[in-house]
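User: These chains co-purify. Model them together.
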Amino acid sequence: MKSLIKFMDSFGAILLAIIWIAPLLFAFWAATHSTSDAVNLNLFSAWTLDNFRVAWAGAPWLKYFLNTFLLVTVILLGQFVLTTLAGFAFAQLRFPGKDYVFILVLMQLFILPEVLIVENYAMVSRLGLFDTVLGVGMPYMASAFGIFLMRQAFKGVPIELHEAARIEGCGLLGILWRVYVPLARPTYLAYALVSVSTHWNNFLWPLIVTNSPETRPLTVGLSIFGAPENGVDISVISAATLMSVAPLLIAFLVFQRQFVQAFLRAGIK
Amino acid sequence: MSAHANLERRRQAIYGWLLLSPAAVLLTLFAFYPSIATLWSSLFSRGTRRRPSEFVGGENYTDLFADPTFWLVVKNNLLYAGVTIPVSIFIALSMALWANSKISARGFVRTAYFTPTVLPMIAAANLWLFFYTPGLGVLDQIGSVFGLPSVNWLGQPETALWAIIIVTIWKEAGFFMIFYLAALQTIPEDLKEAADIEGASRWTYTRRIVLPLLMPTTLFIAVNAIINSVKLIDHLFILTKGGPSDASKLILYYIWEMAFAFFDAPSAAAMTIMVIAVLGVVAAVQFFYLDRRTHYQ
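Assistant: Joint model of the two components:
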């Protein structure tokens, strides 16, 4: 009886797992076979890389990759600087009005940038940042979530280290840089993984703010490439899709444990 | 001594505000000012070349309430939320219980569950297109084996929204699973032993011990799922574009369409304000009500 239950458990879990990755497996199948073979699920048909060649030639993918890469880097750097400074102020300094400002910051957690697209678009245009990578990245830099995360990390640093550094003659920014930042390294790593995968995958805001292949990130490029008006067939779309998710997917498969830990650490605090 | 303390206090205040200022400027530019500007512009009429926009009070709101498409979109979004939230939580819980138990191929199972989380919604939509396409799609192929007729899953009003819902559940269940998984690993082993000694069945153990202990995690996940039911709309752009005849249109997509396809910014603003109000209620409930009721220690 017990072994039957155990078997059923394994069976159910594995069945669900197969269903869960089936879309990816089918895309892989479609991308590596000619369209007619893919559609007919012809199991013994020949493998081919033609779809990748066609897809690669069909859009400036290299430019899109570079744009996405630049975008996530700019956002991450901006977030690191801004959330470190603000998180430190909230965690370790005492000044009037701090609690009120902190509540204001927390409110931003619920006013999603996605919801404010209309006014944020107007703001980006006003600043002359329309169709620039900086324009895509700027609304995300002062992330309330990041500020909160850094505040929690800095609060966990023993005050003795702070005092010791001060007695050694370290200034406030020096203490932040030499004591707090190194000790919060795991939080930075977690935050970086979450931020990179969020913005690698972000779509709606970049769609609104970019208007040329010069700035367009992968997700927007992929949606234009796959639009029905372009009449691309399913094998080629699958190839393009796999190409654009490959870097993140491979990184995830290699650093799986870190990814999961990062999402957990970022989510629970 | 008190002069020194005073100096120190002033120094901290100056540093505090200086360190905050970069974040404060950006938050003002891209969160606080836009929120207020949205509220403001939702009270004005849409300006045209001949007639400049003028103050109309709540007219944009009453116009929306009189618009049947608005109500259809609200209904769609409620159904979207009402199905994706409980179903993805339930699947996430099952996944976590399985991924935490001693089954074979556990590593593969965990990876498979979590993988959709790292994919962009746009890519996910492209993958699912291959399932849904009439005639050629995988679902139709499977159906034809059993002699079922071809179904245009994305092209008919009865099924389009459901097709969207399935993609969302697929995308977020694995993400929610990891929070359950983490919570499960904090449950002490002796509770299970005690339950075994008492002769409690596995079902009783799960229902009476595991589920109550997972309650705070469930609430955390539920809040995230509520936010996602507003936010996750990228796949609409690929799969249905809100159609056919608005059957799968969701609120954020409608806001986008109003503002950037119909150029009706005031109506988009009015809808945005309503969404913010709903999210604000969720936030308030979470802060003041649920947070207090779910910590048992």
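Chain B touches chain A through 91 residues (CB under 8 Å).
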